[in-house]
Structures are given as C-alpha cells and as structure tokens.
Amino acid sequence: MMGPTAELHVHIEGTLEPDLLVRLARRNGIDLPTYDVDELRATYAFTRLQDFLDVYEANTAVLRTDEDFAELGEMYFRRAAAAGVVRAEVFFDPQAHVRRGVPIEAVVEGLGAAVDAARSRGMSADLILCFLRDLGPEAAMEVFEAALPLRDRFIGVGLDSTEVGYPPSLFRDVYARAAAEGLHRVAHAGEEGGPDYVWEALDVLGVERIDHGNRALEDPALVARLRDEGVALTVCPLSNLALRTAPPELSAHPLPVMLEEGLLVSIHSDDPAYFGGYVDDNLQQVRDALQLDDETMRRLAENSFVSSFAPRAQVDGWI
Ligand code: ADE
Ligand code: ZN
User: Fold this and answer.
1) Any atom of ligand 1 within 6 Å of the Cβ of 239
2) Is 208 a catalytic residue?
3) How far is CA 215 from each of CA 52, 191, 220, 301, rounded to the nearest angstrom?
4) Which of 71, 191, 192, 200 is an active site residue?
5) Does the beta carbon of 14 lie inside 6 Å of ligand 1?
6) Is the Cβ–Cβ distance between 62 and 43 less than 8 Å?
7) Is the CB of 270 under 6 A from ligand 1?
C-alpha cells in the first residue's frame, strides 16, 4: 500500500463502479444498455473528454435518492481509506442530478451522510460543489443559490465538464458570490483547453488550485506565475492517459517536467471507476513508469497535504 495522501481531485459520480451501477439501476427501475458488469466496463473506453462525459452523464441516471448518494459516497470513502487517503476533498455535480428532477437536498444530504460516516472512521473529508461549465453561467448561479441553504455541507466550488468553448471568465459572477460566502475556489483548466484558460481561472475566478493544468506547460510565463504563487495543480495521470490529454505512454507523462519546474503538483484519480484506478493505483503506476524515487513519492504526498483545504493543524500533523 502507498503511504498516506490527500485526494483532492475525484468526482464522486466518477467513482460509480459497474457493480453499483447495476444494483442501483435494478433498484430504481432504470434501463441500462447491458446489465453485464464486464460488458459495462468495456463501454468505459474513451479517446477524448467528451466521449467520457457522455457515458458518465448517462450513468448518473441511476442515482435518484439520498440513499443512492449515501451508498455511492460510502463505497468511495471505504475504497479511498484502503488507498491510504487520510484527507478527501470530493467533487460533486449537482446540476447532473437536479436537471433529472432529483432534489438537491437528496444529493447533498446523501453525500453528506457518507462524509459523516467517513469522518467517524477517522478520515478528514469534505465536499466541493462543481458547476457544469457547458450549462453556462446562469445555470451555475441558479444551482449555487439553490445550494446556499446547504452551505455548511460543502467547503468550496469547482468548474468541470466540457472545457473548450466554455472559458472560466464566463463564471466570474458566481465565483465572486462564492468568494463572498467564504468558499474555496478551484477550477478545471488546461486539461483540453489552452494556457489562456488557466490564466483566466487565476485572474478572473481567483482560484486557489488548478485541476489538471497540464497545458500550462506550453506557456513559460504561466509556469513562472504558478511556481511563484505556489498555485497547486491536481494532476491525474490515468485520466490523462484515458482521455489522451497526455502522451499515450505513462513513461512520457509531463509530471517530471512539472516537478523540475518547481510546481506544486500532486497525484489524484479524477474518475477512478472509468480510468482504471484510484489514487493508490495512480501513484503506483507513475512511480513505476517514471521510476520515481522515494524522496519524490514523499514530495508528492506532502504536496497533496499542503495543497489541501484542511485546517493548518491537521496539515502539520500529516507532513
Ligand atoms: N467531470 C468529471 N471528470 C472530468 C474531467 N476530467 N474533466 C472535466 N470534467 C469532468
Ligand atoms: Zn476532474
């Protein structure tokens, strides 16, 4: 097993394993193209972000009640604990559910129950509410306002889904509202989109972390900014392989360049049910493919804690 680490980039909907998908589909009377777990797993083959998002979104149809969300969360937190995760900051996409008629309370309270259970077992865990960027800024503001009564159930906001064509600057107002509420702010940027999306996330949204950020490497001035300001990048190697946002061989992944450039990078899983592994698998595979030494592995874990939104005293206890 890998040493302790913080998981800062995982989408709870992306932890929906085929066996749970089938069980929830049967329970809720939802049609699936197949009920065979192996055949389902075979549909988890993608070559770009949008192909993945289409399957990811279709599968969320099985999630209907607070028990479904609690069960999804419970399965994730148990698997994460086995992976060595002592701190988890978990993304959820309320719009993916609200637009199917699921009450936002079912989503947030269900996941919240799983968070409480994980905490009672000793994990430090919190939720981050993500906006689906392809639904646009008005829809983001609408879901944000709907979520405000549940404000103490999440610690921050994020931005995910289809990147190209939906630049961060569209979401200026809702991020300003989130900042005024004292919420943390992160955004996916530089996954498929160029360095300009990363600049905007920093300058317009005021984000504290960049999710992915791989394409920042194309812009030396941006690399200098990220390094000088100590902006964290949450890098997801197996996701990058699956979605072709990095070279097809893990041995050619840009992680070593990021480390050499002095960037605050850490390793995460993104959508582990779809991309072939949880954070321990990601760590093990980059270690093997890139022949990372123990000191580098220790640095990656330390970076994950330093980049987290856990209370300072907790972080000091982990590093
Ligand atoms: N939603 C879930 N995973 C995502 C990813 N890797 N990029 C954008 N949106 C996502
Ligand atoms: Zn992601």
Assistant:
1) yes
2) no
3) 19, 6, 11, 22
4) 191
5) yes
6) no
7) yes
Shortest-distance Cα residue to atom 8 of ligand 1: 161
Nearest atom within ligand 1 for CA of residue 163? 8
The pTM assigned to this predicted structure is: 0.98
Mean pLDDT of 126-133: 99
Average pLDDT, the chain: 97
The answer, yes or no, to whether residue 152 has pLDDT greater than 90, is yes
All structural domains of the chain, each given as residue ranges with its CATH number in brackets, are 5-308 (3.20.20.140)
**Site to substitute for ligand 1 among 44, 52, 56, 162, most atoms within 8 A of C-beta:** 52
Q: Is the CB of 191 under 6 A from ligand 1?
A: yes
How many angstroms does the Cα of residue 188 sit away from the middle of ligand 2? Answer: 7
Residue 270 is labelled as binding a ligand: yes
State the complex-level ipTM.
0.97
pLDDT at 204: 98
pLDDT of residue 1: 58
Interval 38-88: pLDDT, tens: 999 998 888 899 999 999 999 999 999 999 999 999 999 999 999 999 999
